[in-house]
Amino acid sequence: MKKHTIRIVGGAYRRTPILVPDVAGLRPSPDRVRETLFNWLRHFWGDGFQSKRVLDLFAGSGALGFEAASHGVAHVQMVEPHPLAVSALRTLRNKLGAHSIRIHAGDALHVLSRTEAPYDLVFLDPPFGQQWLDKVWPILPQVLAPEALVYVECEAPVTPPDYLVMERQQRAGQVYFHLFRFAATQKTVNNA
């Protein structure tokens, strides 16, 4: 069986190959989508990546989280339940010496419900067709820092909950991708 690889498209680890494990439902974010996403992030953050904390809630191949680490964010928390994918993530993290990356082998909703540290950016790229976003939306605000950004990649356009404001959206082939900003209100904070 031929092994599938993708590459980190920017930053310190640029051109580093990422082995994509043969795991059902795992589809890494395409190169051009990641490139567009990080152009959007530069628009909002300028060169201020170094102070940012990132949560990659459905890590899969780790393409989004490794890209964030490559751009110099302070901390990346990856969450992935599949043992084969977790092993591949840890192998690449160790090979790169990417000390800003932490990898949690577990369920996204469990981690999200127990996380208290605020994140400046959350990647939501769940397996398609499983209504993960409906499960994530009610508990997501508790992990978002003020003005946090939320990236969503899915098989259809997304209508976000009231606490998120659309900043950017685009389509590449069968993939729809969106960047939202957390618009915290007193009501949101009280309900979280």
From TrEMBL:
Gene3D superfamilies found in the cross-reference section: Vaccinia Virus protein VP39
Name recorded for this polypeptide: RsmD family RNA methyltransferase
CDD domains assigned: AdoMet_MTases (cd02440)
One Gene Ontology biological process: rRNA methylation
ATP-binding among keywords: no
One term of GO molecular function: methyltransferase activity
Keyword DNA damage set for record: no
Sorted UniProt keywords: Methyltransferase, Transferase
Transmembrane region(s): none
SUPFAM superfamilies listed in its UniProt record: S-adenosyl-L-methionine-dependent methyltransferases
